[in-house]
Amino acid sequence: MKPKLNEGEYVFCCLDNVENIDSNKIIGTFKEDEGLTVIISKKEAITLGLSYSFVAAWITLTIHSSLEAVGLTAAFSNALNKKGISCNVIAGYYHDHIFVKIATKDEAMKILNNMSKNNQP
């Protein structure tokens, strides 16, 4: 899996639109009925005066994963769950991205690195 901890702190915000946000600073978006979920750095959210409630670390699994793959998400989410670590997962075209509570980033990286070394999922 080769997990990589991306530097910084990230937050999820719910907005009507992203017209006031530099597109290069947006990590991800997802359209829901209630609004547009936007993932950006905590620093950028503070600068823009945006509300958020979850501060996360962003971990990228650097292995290329197929969007049709079966079992990878279940394997790492179950391993994290066993240690009481919740994760929010976003599948990109090439990689899976995991957002964990900032306070659990070191333990999450340890778990994911151990899985990687043991050739799991």
Structure description:
Helices cover 26% and strands 37% of the residues. The longest helix is centred in the last third of the chain and has 13 residues, at 105-117. The chain has three helices and six strands, in the order E-E-E-H-E-H-E-E-H. The N and C termini lie close together (9 Å). With 121 residues, it is an alpha+beta fold. The chain has helices at 42-48, 72-82, 105-117; strands spanning 3-15, 26-32, 35-41, 55-61, 87-91, 96-101. It is globular, with a radius of gyration of 15 Å. The chain has one domain: VC0802-like, CATH 3.30.2130.10. It has a six-stranded antiparallel beta sheet. The model has no long low-confidence stretch (mean pLDDT 91).
Q: What distance lies between the first and last C-alpha atoms, to the nearest angstrom?
A: 9 Å
- The CATH superfamily turns out to be VC0802-like
How many structural domains in the coordinates?
A: 1
Strand order of the largest sheet: 2-3-1-4-6-5
User: What structural category arises from helix and sheet content?
Assistant: alpha+beta
| CATH class bucket | Alpha Beta
- Tell me roughly what share of residues is in helical segments: 25-40%
**CATH T-level fold name:** VC0802-like
Helices, by number, come to: 3
Question: How many E-type strands?
Answer: 6
**In sequence order, what are the helices and strands, one letter per element?**
EEEHEHEEH
Give the overall silhouette: globular
Task: Give unreliable regions as ranges.
Answer: none
Mean pLDDT: 91
The CATH architecture classification is 2-Layer Sandwich
